[in-house]
Write a structure and sequence with these properties.
- The N and C termini lie far apart (about 55 Å).
- The chain is built from 6 helices and 6 strands.
- The chain has 2 domains: about 60 residues, no CATH class; about 100 residues, no CATH class.
- The model has no long low-confidence stretch (mean pLDDT about 85).
- The protein has about 170 residues and is an alpha/beta fold.
- The strands form 3 sheets. The chain has a two-stranded parallel ribbon.
Length: about 170
C-alpha cells in the first residue's frame, strides 16, 4: 500500500478526468457544474478559459450583501480567451443585447446587429493601455498584453476589410 509522500509513476488507462462536471474543466465546450459565489465578494479564477463559469454560477446573497457588487478577476494563459473575454465585458458594459453577446461568445455566425456591437466593443478594448514592460496586465486597470492587443487588432482589421468567401478559403 502507498503511504504519504510516495510518488506514483504508473500510467492510468483513462488520462481524462471523469468528474462528471463537478470541477472546473479546461474546455469551454464541456458542461460544468455551477459554482456557488458569495454576493459582494471578489472571486479569482486561474485558467478560466472563458466566462462560462460566471454564466453558470449561483450567486448566494445574505441580508448584508444584497447591494454589494461582485468582482471577478480571471488569470488565463490563452490569448484568445483573454481577448474574447475583454470584448464580452465591453459588450456587456455597453448594454449590447444578450443575443448578440451569446452569438459572439458561442457562434461563428452573427447577425449584423451582433457585428455592430462587436465592432464597438473592439474599438473600446483597443483604447486600453499597454501592460507595463510586457508584464501581465493589472486586472484592476484596463490594460492589454501585447499579444492580446495584436489579436484584437487583427479582428478589428478583419471587420474593416472583409474578405470574399473565395479569399477566405484561399487564406485558410
Amino acid at each position: 500500500p502507498r503511504k504519504f509522500g510516495d510518488i506514483f509513476t504508473g500510467k492510468t488507462k483513462n488520462p481524462y478526468v471523469g468528474d462528471k462536471g463537478r470541477g472546473a474543466l479546461s474546455f469551454s465546450n464541456t458542461p460544468k457544474q455551477s459554482l456557488l459565489l458569495d454576493q459582494g465578494k471578489t472571486h479569482v479564477a486561474i485558467g478560466f478559459v472563458d466566462l462560462d463559469l460566471l454564466l453558470r454560477a449561483r450567486i448566494v446573497q445574505n441580508k448584508n450583501s444584497v447591494e454589494q457588487p461582485n468582482k471577478f478577476i480571471g488569470y488565463e494563459g490563452s490569448v484568445y480567451a483573454v481577448a474574447k473575454s475583454n470584448v464580452i465585458k465591453e459588450m456587456m458594459t455597453k448594454k449590447a443585447p444578450i443575443q448578440s453577446i451569446i452569438e459572439f461568445w458561442t457562434s461563428s455566425v452573427w447577425t449584423r446587429e451582433t457585428l455592430k456591437h462587436f465592432e464597438n466593443a473592439v474599438k473600446i478594448v483597443l483604447q486600453y493601455g499597454n501592460a507595463p514592460n510586457n508584464k501581465p496586465p493589472n486586472p484592476t486597470k484596463k490594460e492589454l498584453h501585447p499579444k492580446v492587443r495584436s489579436l484584437i487588432s487583427h479582428w478589428n482589421e478583419s471587420v474593416r476589410n472583409p474578405k470574399s468567401r473565395q479569399e477566405a478559403h484561399e487564406l485558410w
